[in-house]
Amino acid sequence: MRRIVLMGDSITYGCNASNKKSSWAGRLEEYLNTNFKNQFEVINNGVLGENAQQGFDDVEDKVIKYTPDIVLIGYGTNDCTKEQGSYVNDFYNFESNMEDIAGTIRSETNASIVFNLAPPVIEELCNTDTMQIYNRDIETYNKAVKKICGPMGLSFIDHYELMAGRKDLKQLIDSGGIHPNDEGHKLMLENIIASINHLFS
Q1: Fewer CB in a 10 Å sphere around the end CB: N or C, the chain?
Q2: pLDDT tens for residues 56-77?
Q3: CB count, 10 Å around CB of 18?
């Protein structure tokens, strides 16, 4: 049996999907069970509120120890969140974290490594006096991941490009403005399958 490990933040975890099966991770597991019966195990190690620094600190427990065949990594939204005017994880540290996560997984396993780029938020719904998330920052942090992928020969799945600018974005993101709802998770899963289905064969 081949093993897929997911690491990332609350979007990977499936926060605000109506249930685990409705998250993109749950839908991925169902898709694999339907189309590749008993060939895959999906381990979702997404953590609410986690950023890339925390992910790198725990990469051994979250990924390496499972000897995965495929790893999907999704950070950025929490990293580029501003609290009291400062980024939770500044751009250069984020870029270094993501490169280190991928490098560690590559050196310790034979897994295919894929980055999930952070989707857009609805700024008027999620921003407060003490916390702000701006789509321009999500784009900037996503570009850092794309920059890493080139020299390392890694793949990324661009959920931001898929969803940004859509007139129905409010039907894809929950009322808090940050997390995909069931329809948003469904769209993400479709994007994942379209991008990396070849890895499942």
Answers
A1: C
A2: 999 999 999 999 999 999 999 9
A3: 11
Any residues with CB less than 8 A from the CB of 58 and at least 6 apart, and which?
Answer: none
Q: Quick one: three-class SS letters along 74-132?
A: ECCCCCCCEECCEECCCHHHHHHHHHHHHHHHHHHCCCEEEEEECCCCCHHHHCCCCEE
pTM over 0.90: yes
Number of neighbouring beta carbons within 10 Å of residue 43: 16
Closest listed residue to residue 105, CA positions, set 67, 51, 151, 141: 67
Q: pLDDT at residue 38 above 90?
A: no
Neighbours of 149 (CB within 10 A): 19
What residue spans define the domains of the chain?
2-200
CA distances from 185 to 12, 57, 102, 131, 179 (A): 10, 27, 24, 24, 9
CATH homologous superfamily of 2-200: SGNH hydrolase (3.40.50.1110)
Per residue in 151-178, pLDDT (tens digit) is: 999 999 999 999 998 999 999 999 999 9
At residue 6, φ and ψ (nearest 5 deg) are -110, 130
Dig out the tokens for 71 from the structure: 């790893």
**Angstrom distance (rounded) from CA 54 to CA 48:** 11
